[in-house]
Specification:
238 residues; Pseudouridine synthase; 5 helices; 11 strands
Amino acid sequence: MKTEILYEDNSIIVVYKPAGLATQTARIGEEDAESEIRNYLARTGGKNTYVGVVHRLDQPVEGILVFAKTRRAAATLSEDLGTETAGKDYIAAVYIDDKDALKDKERTLTDYIYKDKNGRAKIAKTEAEIKNNNAKRAVLTYSVIGEGNENGIAFLRVVLHTGRFHQIRAQLSNAGLPILGDLKYGNDVSIKLSEGLNIRTVALCADRLSFTHPDMGKSMNFSVNARKPIFGEIYGKA
C-alpha cells in the first residue's frame, strides 16, 4: 500500500496519502487511496469493505485523509468536515510573486471559484462572472511561518474554511503566492524555481486534521510532517 494507516477503529480509518496518488478515481487501472483501503479491509478478513469518501486531496497533494467504514459515519463526517470551522490545516511552500501578500502575518482570502472547461479552478472577478458560472464562495486563512534560504520562498500555514475544487492552489496563486511545484497554477518564475529545487509535485501537505468522532463524539486530532525536503525544519516554527 502507498497509503499509511495512522488510526483505525470500527467506524473510521485515518491514513496518510502520498503525493501522486488520487483519493478516488474513475479511471480503469489507476490506483487510488479508496481502492487501497477497500482491498486492505478485504485482506484483513472483515466482512464489511464499505469505504466512504468524505473529503478529498488533489492527486499531487500529500497529507491526511479520513475514510468512513459505515454509512452512518460517512454522513456524520461529511457534515462535520463540510463546515467552515472544520479542522483542515495545510502547510505550503510558495514563491513570493507579490511581496505585498506577506505584509500582514495573517490574512483571510475570500473569493468565488468555478471550474472552467479545461479543468482549472478560476477566480471570478465580477458579479456577472460569479452568476454566469455559478461560482462558489471560497475562504481560507494563511499565516506566514517562515521564509526559506532560497530567495523568494515563504512557508505558510493554511487553514481551509471551505472545500472548493483546487481552492488553495488557485487562491494562493491569485494572491501572488503560487505554490512551488504547481504546474497548473504556477507562473513561469515559480515553475522555473521549482525545477531548480527539484520540486516535482505540489509543495502542499494536509498535515493536520481534526474532527469529532462520528460514534464516540470525542475530538480526534492527527498530524504528520510533509515529506518534501523543501520543508526542512519548518515544523519547529509551525
